Structure formats: C-alpha cells, structure tokens
Here is the input.
Amino acid sequence: MAAGIAEVALLAGFEVVVRSRTERGAADLVAQVSKSLGKRVERGKLESHVRDTALQHLTTTTTLEDLSRGSIVIESVVEDYEQKMLLLRQLDSVMPVGSIIATNTSTLSVSDLALATLQPDRVCGIHFFNPATTMPLVEVIRPATASQSTIEAALAFVAACGKDAVLVRDDPGFIVNALLFPYLNNAIKMMERGTASIDDIDTAMKGGCNFPMGPFALLDLVGLDTSLSIIETLHAASGKDADRPAESLVRLVGEGHLGRKTGRGFHTY
Ligand code: 3HC
Here is the structure.
C-alpha cells in the first residue's frame, strides 16, 4: 500500500519522501514503484521521461526527522493500534507547524489515534484502496477533533492525486470496509458450511453481480492479516456473534498464509 500511495503522489507531481524502518524495506519500495512505473511505460500509458522525473522526486530514509520538510505525511504501517499510535506521536513531534498528519488506517478509530498526539486538530484519515494506483476512491475521515483547514487540505491533496474523495465520519470501517468486510467474512462462512467451493463462490459473485473479482480473490489481494484485523475491529464494535471472524481466516493467518503477498491464501499464486 505504501508503494502504491507513493506512486500516486509521484505521478501527481509531488516530491515524496518515504520513511521505512530498514534500508532493505526502502529499497524494496523503490524497486516496486520503479517496476510499476516501468510497466506503465511498456504498455504505452506513460512517457518514459515522466517516469524518470517521478523517480527523481522519490527519496527514501530510515530516519523520521527527514520527513520534517513535508506539508503532509500519510502513515501506512501495519494495522495495529499501538504501533500506529506510537508512530503518530513521533510524527507529531517531527512534522512542522501547519502540516497535516494522516493515517491510512482501514478501521481503527482515527479519533483515538488523533487524541494520542498533542495537536489532534491536524490529524485525519486518508484511506486508499487496493491497488492504490488503480482504485479511483479515497475516503477522507473526519474525526471530531480535526480542524476544518485539515479536512480541506486533505480533500485538496486527494483531488491533486486525481482521486475521487468522499468525506466520512469516524465510524468503524468508515463507508467501504463497513459494507465490504461483512460480505467477505460471510463468503468464507458460506464455504465453511459447504454451500459451494471457493472457486464457485468467486465465479458466482463475478458473473452474478459483475464484481471485478470474487470475495476470496479479493481477500487474497487485500491480505488475510489485514482482512482479519478489519473484521476483528468491526466485530468488537458491533459485539454481534454473527460478525465474528470466520474460522478459516483465523487459521490461515495463524499459519502465515496471508494471500498474494506470501504466495498462498485462499488461492495459491
Ligand atoms: N497491484 C497493483 N496494481 C494492479 C494489481 C495489483 N495486484 N492488479 C491489477 N493492477 C493494475 C494493473 O497494473 C492495471 O493498471 P493500469 O490500468 O495502470 O495499467 C489495472 O490495475 C487494471 O489491471 P488489469 O486490467 O490487468 O486487471 P483487471 O481489469 O482484472 O483489474 C483490479 C484488476 C483493478 C484489481 C480489479 O480486479 C478490481 O477492481 N478488483 C477489486 C478491487 C477492490 O475491490 N479493492 C478494494 C479492496 S478493500 C481495500 O483496499 C480497503 C483496505 O482498507 C483494505
């Protein structure tokens, strides 16, 4: 997701500094962006000089302080409240006055994350979808603590990235994940009950609803660890037994089968 967001911002003409915890992580991200831009050039969708300029505007660092020239920062670390909260606190001390701090969280409370900082008025959610380079939508999440100027700056950034923004209150799952993940979780439970196979459920939702991919292919694309974390958050918010994560999802994550990124999830890649 971080590579996708960086690519979107680069193509919109922004200078992008990516902070990764390790040199290896930073190098992998540059390789991913470079490969993706290269594919666009090969397909004739991007001029090679635009790719070259975009890559010149990308720098990486392992030091948070190197982000301090930025006007907006988007964190997209693992979907874990403690880790996101600690990072936002650090960003709050590093980012200059007047800059925006955004979280790309899928379901965590943006208000709780904002209140962990000393300047919650400049914290909001900017939520991209997989694959970020292709999906047109970005949700801008407005916690009660955010100032109007923060929200306006976030909306302006999303528009500058060529994406369609929707503004949403800080409710669990926002718009898309609140509606999408109960469906994905129910597809797994349907398979577990023996109603139909993984392939047939995928085929049914593609052919029967014109969805671009079936629920199992989509779970694998999003990542099963991320999916489980989203479903757990929605379950905690509703408290309903029907929203409990499906057993196979919990098992696959426990076994380290996380979808496309590990080569195996509900499908094998
Ligand atoms: N990673 C990056 N880019 C990808 C990709 C991937 N895994 N798969 C496809 N793409 C890109 C291609 O490079 C291509 O880009 P281009 O138009 O710039 O050349 C574009 O997507 C279209 O690809 P294709 O024509 O080869 O493939 P499809 O027509 O089959 O489309 C898809 C692929 C866009 C992934 C389509 O199947 C789709 O829209 N699937 C649904 C995705 C979805 O619902 N995402 C939301 C998930 S929820 C979420 O992200 C929330 C978060 O909080 C977890």
Notes: The mean pLDDT is 97. The pocket of 3-hydroxybutanoyl-coenzyme A is lined by residues 40, 43, 45, 106, 129-131, 133-135, 177, 180, 212-213, 218, 221-222, 226 (CB under 6 Å). The domain at 176-262 is CATH 1.10.1040.10 (N-(1-d-carboxylethyl)-l-norvaline Dehydrogenase; domain 2). Residues 58 and 120 are 28 Å apart (CA to CA).
